[in-house]
Design goal:
By secondary structure, the chain is mainly α. Helices cover 68% and strands 0% of the residues. The N terminus is likely disordered.
């Protein structure tokens, strides 16, 4: 596959903005991975308590769900930076370099618009939980603004990474769709 080379990571070209966004996306990836490790540890602890000690678990299942959903959302910019999303590059492969670049600018712009809308409504949802003091209806009853914070945080960081990708294509630091021009 053309997009699966060692150049699949978003290039920064020494640009300070692109380097800063790459660092933030990498930090988000580490945070996401840590959340998965914690969720796995909690799941093991929950299994031990339930089946070995024959005890009950009050908060573990809910915490694992929040951690996995949060890891998914917060990990979005890192996956975008690594070009890890599903990529169908048949059409860009058939295009010439100028048309491919135009299509990349268009698709990145539309993606930024869609993620911006999701960010807006995700922030609004998080703010409702914060402002109204929403709590989970479980026995544990955590404040819901804490896990809901992953929504605007994840989409905000993804939008920032998409903007960086757009800037890199416009400045010709990165190739459109990660496809180098044949020369």
């Amino acid at each position: 596959m053309a997009g699966q080379s060692s150049a699949a990571v978003a290039r920064t070209g020494g640009n300070p903005f692109l380097k800063a966004v790459a660092a933030l996306s990498t930090l988000a990836g580490w945070l996401s991975a840590s959340m998965i490790v914690i969720a796995v540890g909690l799941t093991c602890q929950m299994i031990f308590i339930r089946f070995v000690l024959n005890g009950s678990t009050v908060w573990q299942t809910e915490a694992v769900i929040y951690l996995v959903v949060g890891a998914t959302l917060i990990g979005l910019p890192y996956v975008q930076r690594l070009r890890g999303h599903v990529n169908v590059d048949l059409i860009p492969l058939m295009m010439g370099p100028r048309l491919r670049r135009s299509m990349a600018i268009l698709t990145l712009s539309v993606s930024i618009l869609i993620i911006g809308i999701m960010l807006f409504y995700g922030f609004e949802y998080w703010h409702f939980a914060w402002d109204r003091g929403w709590r989970s209806d479980t026995v544990w009853g955590p404040k819901l603004w804490i896990p809901y914070l992953a929504i605007p945080l994840g989409f905000g960081l993804l939008m920032l990474q998409l903007i960086a990708d757009l800037v890199a294509v416009i400045l010709r630091i990165d190739a459109p769709f990660g496809l180098e021009e044949e020369g």
